[in-house]
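@channel sequence for tomorrow's demo:
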Amino acid sequence: MASAAAGTLVVGAGAAGLCLATRLRELGDDQAITIVGDEPEPPYERPLLSKTYLRGEHDRSSIFLREAGWFQQQQIDLVTGDGVVEIAREASGGTALTASGRSIPFARLALATGAAPRRLMVEGADLDGVVLLRTLTESDDLARRLRQAGDVVVVGGGFIGLEVAASARALGCRVTVVELTGHLLGRAVTPELSHFFRQAHERRGTTVVLGTGVSRLTGHDGTVTAAVLTNGTRLPADVVVVGIGATPRTVLAGGLGLDVEPRGIVVDRHALTSDRATVAAGDCTVSPNPFSRGLVGLTRLESVAHADDQSRTAAATLLGHLAAYDTVPWFWSDQGELRLQIAGLPMGADLSVLRGDPASEKFSVLSFRDGLLIAAECVGASPDYVAVKRGLEKGMTVDPDAAADPSVPLKRLLTPL
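structure tokens (generated this afternoon):
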């Protein structure tokens, strides 16, 4: 049986795990904290892996979130390259076993296990040159390959796929994006934004193929040479990047008997799991929508902002300070020189208002439901993004007709409910 001296075990050494441990210390927790991760590196800025880091604009050490001495100063034991494979839990604590056989006792448990990239399940998917992008090691490998590649096929038109496409194009590659559905970013943005990003990428030389999947990959001497699409098209490929989403890592939670579903570990507004003792945060979770104007029901959010905010809630919960996670969601994506910033959640909108001209690549799309502003998607329009984010946080809205005039700053149009 674990004792109180065993402190807190944080399973997962990504942004969520680090933020959770940091917040525990900020709240005055002086008990032992252990963070365990299966990657060999300390926590780093994962969003950069498909963008500036992939293009060689950062050296490796610059993307780590904390210097090595910080963990010692905070009396946090960081275990890397040795993931947790089993957890035995009791009411007063428990013990975790790592892949190397290390036993770690704990009094409190936090799961920040993240997500794993989905693999392409077609013939030839195991050929050399078919790559995923989730980890720092994978980004290093992809960067090396892109610098030697001519033709690159990106499978998946989501954020990772489009960010990688822009980076590959900047490195001189010929790029084709293949998306199974009829829309880029279809699960995350409004149709107006989806249409814009297709045109913007095509203007820059990327070929975009929609409504088509990959049926098989072919190669020579074990290395990929082409992607064959479901419509029969054969695309030459020196590198195939698979970016078709990520699956939450819920195996440990399932082994503990916690409620899980395909979208993640089920937690409440306090980041508590179904056993009412363990907390979970970040990409591995599905939780009530934290945005009061959002759709009712469990929602899965994938962003560093969400991981940080939910982890702070989880840390407070572990220390007995129950405060609901009710932050306005926000997100950003850099695709080459195109910067998209989103405040709120546009899903479920019944009205969209275009503010500015998409041809200028500086515009916003405001989403409304039942007459209330629920989100802003801003391309090259940071003032609009900042105004909406702050307005939503203060419970404000804007008149849709007035908002359509880009000559009037949004911050002047926001009004309380």
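heads up for whoever presents: The first strand starts at residue 8 and ends at 11.
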